[in-house]
Amino acid sequence: MAAMQDTPIDSIPQAYDTVTKAFLSGKTRPIAWRKAQIKKLGFLVQDNEDAFVRALEQDFGRPAFETITAEINPVKAEINEVYDHLEKWAKPRRVKTSATWYATKPTVYSEPKGVTLVIGTWNYPITLLLVPLLGAISAGCTALVKPAEQAPHVAALVADLLPKYLDPTAFICINGAIPQATALLKLKFDHIFYTGSGTVGKIVARAAAEHLCPVTLELGGKSPAVVLDDADIEVVARRIVWAKFTNAGQICISTDYVLTTPQTEPKLLEALKRALAAFSANPAASSSSEKSSTSLVHNPNYSRIINQNHYNRVSKLLDATKGEVVVGGGRDEKERKIEVTIVRGVKPDDSLMSEEIFGPVLPIMTLPTLDDMVKFIQSRDTPLALYVFTQSKKNRDFIFERTRSGGFVQNDVLVQFMIPGLPFGGTGAAGYGNYHGRRTFDTFSHERASANVPTWMDMIMASRYPPYTQKKLKM
Ligand code: NAD
């Protein structure tokens, strides 16, 4: 795949005019047209699986297995779900009303919001771009889509494929970085769907406010994994460390840090080490010394850090920690790889607790009681995900009822993104709005209220007209 070409800034208004005209022409409204485009989006993914896998290998060495299972398959599932349910979701809905208003046939129409903008990010650059685009298509909107420049091979592939599969007057890819994003944000959209950091999320929300444009912000944050004394430690360890291994922990809903008790910490650490050693077997190793090595630096099953900036950022957090590195710690700047690194003895003011790690470093903090853990979580920004490992419903409920988070999972990680039927989105610092399944359609739709008031109803409504007499007040 050729390198990503930046879209010239001065061509952005023309692209905007094209998708605006396409929307105003009405051609995106018929359900049949939307379904045909959704089908083509499905073919875009299906026909080009290998190209997507290669692009992600080039962008950050992500193994094919992870691209297929965590991006291609979930995107296909979303496309199928929206395709299968679109008629039902888009059907006008008569609402229940009072006897007085029954004759007005009050009805809610799910109408396309209009011309939309989707800004994607790089860590899951297929699903985080194409699923919001699916939402725009399904709702009858048009869209400009901006892939993340940090994953340039995927961005180039999307720019190449979009006009080959989708209506090029309704969906246009804009490639580039901050200059292109800034030019886009000056335009008046009817919805902006942004995935990325909170810092940029604020820039997007401010720009959108100028046009009173509604926004979905899919942001990040520090998502805790609370491990209680009654947890099934072997399984817990596998699951927690998996969320740091896969995509090298560059996941918005990764287990950012562990909160556990001083009693459970030692056995958890041992189990985490065992789990990581098992994951680190190198399938490409030829010699027996390579086979027994658990170094992740040359392991093809393990992704790179996306770029030098993020490599430096995570390295700096690790260098500044006052905790004790108990597992991993190896890195290779040339390979841009940082091993899964577990750090114990971490205090609330540690560098590793200062910002979302968004990488393969796992700090472990201990607190004596459940109550202390809840207070700690409450004192921090609302996380995108909260994971609680316990066999006890009472403990689970205690935490659930006293905290807030985008999603909540007992005894597992990451699955809230995959389970059909669950909405995905944050609250507080983790963003607002959500999508997946029906919400993907709803996000890009406006619920337009409609009533048809028969003129004969003036027989019963005439009292509303002036003059306002005392007699009318008593009616
Ligand atoms: P980022 O926020 O810098 O980039 C994401 C997008 O924003 C890119 O398309 C980029 O071009 C654009 N962008 C960057 N600067 C901009 C500016 N000044 N104006 C307008 N647009 C701009 O990416 P990042 O910080 O590396 O992303 C990581 C963050 O994203 C983490 O916090 C992570 O948790 C979050 N994230 C959230 C989700 C989710 O679904 N909630 C998914 C993935 C990542």
Automatic annotation (TrEMBL):
InterPro entries: Ald_DH/histidinol_DH, Ald_DH_C, Ald_DH_CS_GLU, Ald_DH_N, Aldehyde_DH_dom, Aldehyde_DH_NAD(P). Keywords: NAD, Oxidoreductase. One of its GO terms (biological process) is aldehyde metabolic process. GO terms for molecular function: aldehyde dehydrogenase (NAD+) activity. Gene3D superfamilies: Aldehyde Dehydrogenase, Chain A, domain 1, Aldehyde Dehydrogenase, Chain A, domain 2. The active site is at E218, C252. Residues 10-446 form the Aldehyde dehydrogenase domain. Pfam families: Aldedh. GO terms for cellular component: cytoplasm. Belongs to the aldehyde dehydrogenase family. This is Aldehyde dehydrogenase. It comes from Rhodotorula toruloides (strain NP11) (Yeast).
